[in-house]
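Intended use. Records like the one below are meant for learning the mapping from a protein sequence to its folded structure. Do not use them to infer anything beyond what is encoded.
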Amino acid sequence: MRKMLVAGGLVIGLLVPGCANNGGRLATPSAAGYVHEQTTTSAPLAPQPAVLVEKGNFTLYVSNQSFEKPTMLIAVTIDGRQVVSTDFQVGNQHQFLRFALDLAAGPRRVVARAGDGTMVEATFTMPDDGERWGVLTFWASAAYYAPMFQWRYFDEEPHFA
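Structure written out for the chain above:
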């Protein structure tokens, strides 16, 4: 059963079952969506870095889903430690950056800030064993809604369309 927590507003059917499971490796062009590494192009917004690993017990995926703001600085911290601070490109809306971490069991706090001031804050609980996944997406459309983040937390690996 897939559990999720939504913070920050609108829920859009972004995650769908049926895409190939890549076993935690970075996706290849044959996967439904692109997951890739990206270097920082803007000054960090948080001082202490988190320790990223190849494969951890928590994987965070981050994406800019706004054609209206095709480049957006997004900074994410977990428990006050910076996971990422970089410009995210909307591209074709199928670009998710992957960040793997080893988190201790217990309650965790994630905070995301965009370069335009948009922010979301949420909590989740890491179990004593097993893996968990988080998906953070930035959205903006002046015709429909103000800029916002969408946060989802899963006990099964999400798949992207």
